[in-house]
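Hi R.,

Here are the chain sequences for the assembly we discussed:
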Amino acid sequence: MSEETPKSPPRIGVFVCHCGKNIGGVVDVPSVAKFAEGLPNVVFSTDNLYTCAEDGLTCIKDAVVKHNLNRVVVASCTPRTHAPLFMSAIEEAGLNQYLFEFVNIRDQCSWVHMKEPEKATKKAMILVEMGVRKASLLEALEEKEIAVEPSALVIGGGVAGMVAALGIADHGFQVHIVEREERLGGLIGNIEKVYPVKRAASSVISDLERAVRASPMIEVHTSSTVKDAKGYVGNYDVEIQNGGASTFHRIGAIIVATGATEFKPEGMYSYGEDGRILTQLELERQMREGKVDGVKSVAMIQCVAARGEKFTYCSKMCCSVAIKNAIELKTKQPAIDVSILYNDIQMPGEALEKVYTDAREMGIKFLRFPLKARPQVVADGGLAVRFFNESLGADDELRPDLVVLSAPLVPREGAKELSRMLKVPLGQDGFFFEAHVKLRPLDFATDGVYLCGTAHGPKGLQESISQAMGAASRALIPLSNGKVRGEAAVAFADEATCIGCGNCVKVCPYVAIDRVERNGRFVAVVNSALCKACGTCVPACPSGAMTQKSFTDSQLLEMVDAVSQEEA
Amino acid sequence: MADSVLVIGGGIAGIQAALNLADKGIHTYIVEKLPTIGGHMALLDKTFPTNDCSICILAPKLAECSNHDLIDILAYSEVLSVEGKEGAFKVKIKRKARYIDEEKCTGCEDCARSCPIKVSNEYNLGLNMRKAIYIPFPQSVPRIATIDASVCMHFTKGKCGVCKIKCGAGAVDYDQEDEIVELEVGSIIAASGFEVFDPKEMTEYGYGVYKDVVTSMEFERILCASGPTAGRITRPSDGKTPDRIVFVQCVGSRDPKHGRPYCSSVCCMHATKEAMLVREHDEHVETCILYTDLRAAGKGFFEYAERGKKDYGIKYIRAKPGRIVRDESSGELEVWYEDTATLKVSRMKAGMVVLATALVPSRSTAKLAETLGVELDEYGFFRSPDPLLRPVDTTRPGVFATGYCESPKDIPESVAQAGAAALRASRVVAGVTA
Amino acid sequence: MADQFEPKILAFCCNWCSYAGADLAGVSRMQYPPNVRVVRVMCSGRIRPEAVFKALSNGIDGVLVLGCHIGDCHYLTGNHRTAKRMLVLEKLLDHLGVDPRRLKVDWISASEGEKFSRTITTFTEQIKKLGPANGGAHGRRG
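And here is the predicted structure of the full complex:
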């Protein structure tokens, strides 16, 4: 297999396809093949009935050998479906698969100009000429591979972090968990029960911690932080700091599982003015400490500071947390009066809907209020909760013993610094921002870094765990392969011409370009294992140093020239 | 020990699980009962909350599966039996005859163009016709024709044969037979998705009686540029543009009596999306969503719904409709409902009504569970022995479930959980114990 | 004669969206005028404004730059760059002696086969009305 661009002048073979009658029925395919014969650098030209069929592929392979072709142009359907097939064929014949150009004369010619066969034929000819001119300038390309260090870093030792670490360690890779606090367990270390499975949170944490500590592949660093993480996928140099001491590690993949924390609504709903106004987490602690036993009535208020009040988002699990706590209260003291003031009850997942039904059947009251006029809490010796009761269609007031505010999860402190360190973005809401909201929720645009749990956004424990397993699965791709393969048609900065302005670094969506010091000046260096071959950096370069392989300026301009020079 | 994984179901969850596995170097089969992979996501117009064109973001994944050295797609196939145990399953698959030579077919569709038989097109939810020989949609993978022998004249009457004549590649083969193949795999992932609940029995909504009462999936096809109306919003009854479209939520969901007790999770969002798309297509059409609880809790979802209200002028009324009737003289529909804010019973005229019907485990899921020897929960979703720490496990070791068939969820959740299934499945073939 | 003038149209199409949309137009057999010649790039962000200008001053009568819808770019932000660059170019064209109506930037997704064929048809007709651009094979100014 040849990796070198042939040093001899281009010897192009052109294969024009009939595709049965699909092309041949409109375009005069033999004429196009004959026309191609006369183009510069074309040494062989033929037409095939079905170029993608066995005999068509054999024709190409034979011609490559027989006529010593060093570039191949196929004019047929569309590269989007058939390019890989032809590229494999020429590679089998001993030619680098990137010395290939595809000309679309079916989907974008014969099929759309069915009533104008002469013009379609002329168009096919010029398209073939464009392809031939580009092919003359094609170089052999390779996909750069970089080795991946067989180890992972999980930032965050909560449930998501532990699950992700176990997933990776299970497959035989070293994992470092870095946890800021003294203990593992994260946010749910503060709660009693996990719904809807009704398990004790402490048992979930202890089960996971036991497995983590028992694993010979996992090293746990508590009371530690990630001080620095330099490098890129497969090749991170990570500094973990514990007190004054630092340890250094080579890391292949990083998972961000830094979680979230409950917002404290200072200055809202009279929070902070009276010890009987609590957040849900504070309620759970008080329940655990037996401090709620004498309470006769509780009013919970949903959407505190969320859904357009201070934060734009819905925190997804506050309704299930409130209902869980309400059920726990009511189960312990059936006579207690619990009202939940809500706007829209969110109960994601089929099991939680049943929990909502159970809560209503237990006599927990659900009172609806409008978002534009939220409940008011007044500490006037007692507690007054004033709100517009939508079910009654009138103003209403409760005088509970305890007011519990369901506040949203917010990103943890340090997210900004981490985002800068790892070169991954934060969203508008301050949570980490994934590569694609629909199809890549656990990836970042930066290769090698993954995301899971409430660091991604508010969610319940079950979903965090699914995400943690999913993130481990994503991280295992580079880890299991031991290498990362880049694209072939990557960008490349010519060091001599580069003026080190850094424009390209700014526009690259994948953080694949670095501005580094070489021989006393700054230049851009493209990491061809990270480059996704979009070419956006090329027009950003003021000095013309940046090119994109297989889509170079000369190649594109040759194609444009062919059209300019086309006879009318 | 077999080192391959079998994924049953070629929707977004199955595809993502297969890609995660194959990218890790694990050989994966995707078995899909339809002639193409893509599932329901391929039929959506746009996806919330980004309003990305659905097939545009899906098609590259379909192509990736098709081109991947380690993925074998067995479309138009069904799982017949599963024997063995974790690490060593023997699975019998029936590859149904398409009556087309897969090696020869180029996907040009000359056959479909010349076929004289038209039948209801299930890919457009029955809103238009397809031929007896057909390719489901342009981006189908594999892009190979299929003959529906139940309606093809050659098979039912021994006549016609036009497609065979018209096929330039000689790909039509009426003598093709179903093929049984046996696969040896280490683990299995069920990703059999969902089905749309049929609201016909909820007679108060008039579905099946009034043409202009449609399900949200049908409306999705109407909105779609590649659908039966080329994206023009027109009433099925008379082709006119409606003045107002009313969306009714929770049809069959959160309804233990007539439907399912659970929430289908995605309907509040897709109603908002469809209403936004209506407003984008034609800002003269009013949109109104009648809902119970607006479930917009995912990342960016609440902001999306707020945009729908403020920027797109969608009206949201917390109400449950009582009845939908048709005024024969005007041809308009009338939606009777109780507005829970004002406690008044009112009625609203509507050119069209879109019912957000429940999404239920597909019928094939029930059959699949039997074949796999695993338990379903009371709603028909795959049951996990430990829903918290083993969310994608089933009651049979080595068999996992992900996507909607595991529990109601949206696309990002399906993609994330598919990764979890891939993790569990790969442990088996990687020989990890405990 | 102006009505016998057949303009030369060049369309830069990005692999993931507009090129795929063009393919879909073909699969759906939507017919459009045969004047357009497509140059495929991976992302519309690859297209240099200078290349567009060169085309328009060298015998090509109309240039289309067709990328993904904003927010849908396969490469995340490539088309944001395209939008900015082409906006600047449009403003400059007049000063450079080229009628800015000869450049059209549009966003066509992979599922918009109909939009692709409509865009080509409309643009071709508009350029026909404008007549030949200056320079190149036509040898006339305009």
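Residues 59 and 136 of chain C are 4 Å apart (CA to CA). Confidence is low (pLDDT under 50) at residues 136-142 of chain C.

Let me know if anything looks off.

Best,
T.
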